[in-house]
Amino acid sequence: MLVVQKYGGTSVGTLERIHACAKRCLDTSRQGHGLVVVVSAMSGETNRLISLSNRLISQVHGDQTTQSDEGKGPYVVSGRVGHRPHQRELDQLVSTGEKVSASLLAIAIQELGGKAISLVGHQLGMMTDGSFTNARITTIDRERLHRELDAGHIVVCAGFQGLDREGNITTLGRGGSDTSAVALAAALQADACEILTDVDGVYTTDPRIEPRAQKLPHLTYEEMIELSSLGAKVLQIRSVEIAMKHRVPVHVRSSLHTGEGTWIVSEQPQQSGRAINLQTPIVRGVALDRNEAKITVTNVADIPGSIATIFGKLANDGVVVDMIIQNASRNGSTDVTFTVPEQDLDRSIEGLQALDLISSTSELISDRAICKISIVGVGMRTHAGVAAKAFELLGRDNINIQMVSTSEIKVSVVVHERYGELAVRALHEGFGLHQSAGEQQAAS
Amino acid sequence: MLVVQKYGGTSVGTLERIHACAKRCLDTSRQGHGLVVVVSAMSGETNRLISLSNRLISQVHGDQTTQSDEGKGPYVVSGRVGHRPHQRELDQLVSTGEKVSASLLAIAIQELGGKAISLVGHQLGMMTDGSFTNARITTIDRERLHRELDAGHIVVCAGFQGLDREGNITTLGRGGSDTSAVALAAALQADACEILTDVDGVYTTDPRIEPRAQKLPHLTYEEMIELSSLGAKVLQIRSVEIAMKHRVPVHVRSSLHTGEGTWIVSEQPQQSGRAINLQTPIVRGVALDRNEAKITVTNVADIPGSIATIFGKLANDGVVVDMIIQNASRNGSTDVTFTVPEQDLDRSIEGLQALDLISSTSELISDRAICKISIVGVGMRTHAGVAAKAFELLGRDNINIQMVSTSEIKVSVVVHERYGELAVRALHEGFGLHQSAGEQQAAS
Is residue A59 less than 8 Å (CB to CB) from chain B? Predict the structure, then answer.
């Protein structure tokens, strides 16, 4: 068996935890598995490095203001964008965090009597495109990995980073170490990619919101993608996409004990070689995403191309738009409402203000005080009325729905952020998720 | 003009200092110079990383002992060597410190409106041999540097590190950023290599010991090599060797102001194109080295090869032996005394104990409570009696000399560490070094 294990920032957050990881690596290796390990930066380290850069920039500009404008509520943005360092240099900077963890873990394994070698970008041959701070992996040099594995080494890789074709260091975005791990597992056709983390697995919803949340023994890739995109911060969404494409069985489990976590596999369990019962209930999980903001553009001329101009501009600026609503046309113009990640709100507004299209007749209205609640489950494909039931459950608690979006396996609604947790609990209970799988079967 | 500037750890030790370095880089660049910058890790960072590794190793071994055995005095070593991490991993680990500084300095220059790019090992093409923790530079990829310089960039390089032929990260030893800078200056045939540091230049002796110490306006490479090897921690000795070999004019100066520091040039000022008066006094400087320890091997069989075995073993273990004294033979055996760097004492003893040669009749006696004082000056070549005068000056203060070593331009003596500072002051005054250069000329 060849296994890829990924240890997140908390799992390598202290020297004690690194010691524990090293022991676990050796246990896995001594079971006869070839082992490739991917590590994140020690928790807090990436933020420390980014903060160094931010404080340096403030220092250079004699700028004592910080982004204290965190007040929420609808307001028209006047548009000041903070200084941003050259992203190439930022990537060179923050990529050091994982290098430190990788070396330390390799040292710990060696001190425990194991054979280990740490590999960083240019040694690993982890190539990416040139999108600094958010690069995508293109190729991996398997030869070097196989050579080290054949030599009996536990190969410890610095996650979150790669190199572009010019040899610049790139990073893969927050959570990018997940993607490093899954990509390595795919390249090596590993038998499993274990994501070792500080939670026991994937839950039906956030247990801090709903204490009756249940750990899910298994999920499909599609369900995990929806849950990831909806704020369940267990896995970087791109990692699940790669896992799905290459059919990498992903096992999200605790780094603190060896109990089973949640397997993320394809819908056809017989194909993955695992005897997992996917007789799923209709809804598998409820996710809450507080990190979206809403923008309304009023009085957009209702002619072909206007809408395309708006979303083309946002795409060019690298802003990922989620939900979009266009109201019916009135007097040849229309209002368009959509959501963007909250941290992209200011520059979205600034970008849109630069458009000729946003003339004096249009107004940009933004609202940070929203959240998105989603229910996810492959079972919804063959069950009508899931959305209707969700609306009914929310209505019963007098929760006003601002936006709705549905897909084959998901229903998402935007509500005032004040009602987020209430909505999660209502849907979690309404769809019977607080019961164990067996009880659910019986109840349905 | 093409200039290489090196900023040491203190000079980039805080964000304020990095800001100041960035301004200085821009000033240099705006004077029309091409500029390559080499940076050390922020002061304390390398030690922090090494400490992480050491603490991790203690953690793994449940080892609460630290190297608290710093007590000095002659003692027979029982020989316990601490756990040492795999040096490859240690180099991967500590090399991150300079990468952080390089990115931050590039960011600061950019924020000030300049063009800058940071380059790390694989981007810089800084190749070394495979001696982890103490590698030597072999080749540098000039093409990339010229490309960036031609593009108008200030090129900020991570010092102290390179890559071996397998792509492993190597480091160049403490002070290795000096060597990075001089090697880059040599490769690019730069007009000057400026070492920007927290002192104003090279002094006749350590001003903390002798407040009347004078800043030297210039020194020859050979004098600087002797002073470096003798504890004047201004420059890594290897950097001066490279400078001498490639005739790189080195300017040691303060990073806090733009006053002239000390030029280190060849003996032939007309060849270096600088009008420097090298009518030097006999002695140029007095150095104190507290970091040596003395080992005596008693009763070594006085037959061919015994001595070679001892020093061959130490060389194989990578211990640099400095002074060696062999006493006259008694009864077919002899005592050999030599000095090694204090931090290598324990493993030197341990290595020697493994030799068959060190039989039951031999004893290893070590003494940390020594120091070495040296006087250096190219003028000594043509002046007899410098050593005799030095002995006389020390004798006048009742300082007992334990070992003596002389070269063409240097006299070194080992004395009890208690007398180190006294000896420095006696020699500094006795050779008239507290006078300015003009006064010295008149006095001689």
Answer: yes
Shortest Cα–Cα distance, A98 to chain B (Å): 10
| Residue of A17, A42, A89, A115 for testing the chain B interface, max B β-carbons within 10 Å | A89
Q: Does B16 sit within 8 Å of A59, measured CB to CB?
A: yes
Q: Which of B243, B146, B142 is nearest to B195 (CA)?
A: B243
Least confident of A13-17, B134-138, B309-313: B309-313
Q: Which of A61, A96, A108 sits opposite B56 (nearest CB)?
A: A108
pLDDT at position A85 is 57
| Residue to test with chain B: of A60, A161, A165, most B Cβ within 10 A | A60
Q: Is the pLDDT of residue A275 over 50?
A: no
A-chain residues within 8 Å CB-CB of B88? 117
Which residues from chain A sit within 8 angstroms of residue B147, using beta carbons?
Answer: none
- In angstroms, the CA A5 to CA A181 distance is 7
Q: How far is A90 from chain B (nearest CA, A)?
A: 7
Q: Residues B314, B352: contact at Cβ < 8 Å?
A: yes
Query: Tokens standing for B421?
Result: 């500072």
Sheet hosting strand A126-128, strand order edge to edge? A137-140, A126-128, A161-163, A169-171
In a domain, A379, yes or no: no
Contact B369, B272 (CB under 8 A): no
CB atoms within 10 A of CB B48: 12
The minimum CA-CA distance between B131 and chain A, rounded to whole Å, is 17
Q: For residue B313, tell me if it sits in a domain.
A: no
Answer yes or no: is the ipTM higher than 0.85.
Answer: no
Helix H or strand E encompassing B272:
helix B269-272
Instruction: Supply B193's token pair.
Output: 């290599």
The H-assigned helical ranges of B31-141 are: 45-60, 87-94, 96-111, 121-124
Query: Domain holding B221: CATH number?
Result: 3.40.1160.10
Q: What percent of chain A has pLDDT over 90?
A: 68
In the chain, the amino acid numbered B85 is P
* A56/B111 touch (CB, cutoff 8 Å), yes or no: yes
* C-alpha distances out from residue B136 to B9, B170, B224, B248, B443, Å: 21, 9, 20, 18, 44
Angle formed at CA A431 by CA A427 and CA A436, multiple of 5 degrees: 120
Kindly report the nearest CA distance between residue A241 and chain B, in angstroms: 31
Phi, psi of A215 (to 5 degrees): -75, 135
B420: closest CA among B392, B396, B400, B390?
B400
Does the CB of A53 have a partner CB in chain B at under 8 Å? yes
What is the C-alpha to C-alpha distance for residues A272 and A175, in angstroms, rounded to an integer? 26
Count of the separate structural domains present in chain B: 1
User: Are residues B93 and A103, on separate chains, in Cβ contact within 8 Å?
Assistant: yes
Residue A252 lies in domain: 2-47+87-278
CB pairs under 8 A between A and B: 129
Put simply, the answer to whether B107 touches A53 (Cβ < 8 Å) is yes
Three-state secondary structure readout of A8-29: CCCCCCCHHHHHHHHHHHHHHH
Query: B377 lies in a domain?
Result: no
Domain-embedded: residue A327: no
Q: CA of B15, closest CA in chain A: separation in Å?
A: 6
Q: Which pLDDT does position B234 carry in this prediction?
A: 81
